[in-house]
Amino acid sequence: MDQLREKVKGKGRRGMEVDGPMSDSRELFVVEYRGGRCPSSFPGVEGLLGVWPEPPYFYCFFGREVSREEIAGFGREYGWTFRDTYRLAYDQWQDVAPATLRVGPFLLHTPGTPPPHPERAEGMVLHLNPGIVFGSGVHPSTRGCLLVIGELFASFPIETVTDLGTGTGILALACARLGCRRVTAMDCNPLAAREALANVRLNRLTSVIHVVTADDPATLNRGGDLLLMNIEWAALRKVLEGTAWLRYGKVVLSGFLETQWGQVRDMLPAHYSIFCRRSVDGWGTVAVANPASGNTNPGGSGAREPPWESSRQRFGRGAGGRPEKTGDPSNKNPGQVEPAPGFVPTANGFVKSPRRDRLSGPLGSVLRRIPRP
After folding, report:
1. pLDDT by 10s per residue, the chain, length 373
2. Residues in Cβ contact with 90 at an 8 Å cutoff, skipping those fewer than 6 apart
3. Domain 131-327 class, CATH top level
4. What is the three-state SS of 90-122?
5. CA angle 186, 302, 230 (to 5 degrees)
6. What is the dihedral of CA 263, 265, 267, 268, to 10 degrees?
7. Where are the alpha helices (DSSP H) in the chain?
């Protein structure tokens, strides 16, 4: 797999600067089981990276090859039935980040790689180990969110944030670095919550970021200054159809293609305003504000000087007060949508899986379509 490794320096994908390797030759060994429930921990299992739950299926990720005897014994231990095994390169599963990656005001650093060069070390450094969950910083929706978050914090005082579908915790880390007082990082996948907590500890932000495992949108009822939802399309629609998210003064929405922007806009309340929109490699990110929450004017008390120009405008209104496509000058078709990784819907819909085609089946159907190394 050595030929897969490449050095990239300077400008990389759109909207980011990279320095270091953009591929990873490590191998993953995945064992698929079917069973009842997933234990909260798996003590003493050598080489187990984590268990990805999609009940009634469970996918055990190992960093080493496992024997038939180990597979059978692991299944007996937890009452699971063995179904299949998969072997793939790490960079076939995860969007591998370079050693350092700059997105807006943030500099992402992968642990175990050389630290950023002194001349490039300015900005807020986020130490991030993506493991096997979503949020390495490479995906266009993540980059769009980081850019928008930077603009929001430069324009408004934001003290409390909820990150729904936190994955590695990358967006929660960004908010904490920008000075947020309290961040709640939520994910329905216990594996993602574990990875996020590890990254929070790595960045020494445990006093600010609180990681919870939850899959019920009603947990959003507490409200706050900012809600982040970089989640897969089906899950985003489900949340927007409810009312819990309306308790937040500002909301960042992502995980949708630019071609789906019209559907997103039509689900927003008529009185909400757009603070800014970003399109990165065909994926959309938008920040909206509820005027009723107050403090919706950039440059208000406590706001920081914006590091770059933002595009703030209101929706155009059509019949019945709904947004009108022609009334929003930012609603431009980006043209040909570039190929980009997609998402796998899960039973409860909040988990984005890394680097795969958009499929509706369980994770096993995705793994079967990845070419074997």
Report:
1. 222 222 222 333 444 443 444 345 588 899 999 987 777 677 677 888 888 888 889 899 998 899 999 999 888 888 899 999 999 887 777 766 677 788 989 988 888 777 766 555 566 889 998 888 888 888 999 999 999 999 999 999 999 999 999 999 999 999 999 999 999 999 988 888 989 999 999 999 999 999 998 876 677 778 899 999 999 899 999 999 999 999 999 999 999 999 999 999 999 999 999 999 999 999 999 999 998 876 655 544 333 333 333 333 323 333 333 333 333 333 333 222 222 233 233 333 333 344 433 333 457 666 776 766 5
2. 24, 25, 26, 27, 28, 96
3. alpha beta
4. HHHHCCCCCCEEEECCEEEECCCCCCCCHHHCC
5. 25
6. 170
7. 68-78, 90-93, 140-155, 170-177, 190-202, 233-240, 261-266, 363-367
- Residue span(s) of the chain under CATH 3.40.50.150 come to 131-327
How far from the centroid of its chain's Cα atoms is residue 7's Cα? 25
CB 192 within 8 Å of CB 166 = yes
Cα–Cα distances (Å) from 61 to 85, 96, 136, 225, 353, in that order, read 10, 17, 18, 37, 14
CA angle (127, 131, 137) in 5-degree steps: 55
Separation between Cα atoms, residue 68 and residue 193, nearest integer Å: 30
Amino acid (one-letter) located at 327: G
Q: Is 270 helix (H, G, I), strand (E, B) or coil?
A: coil
> Residue 187: exposed, middle, or buried by beta-carbon count in 10 A (0-12, 13-18, 19+)?
buried
The pTM of this model reads 0.73
Residue among 30, 36, 31, 29 at smallest CA distance from 80: 36
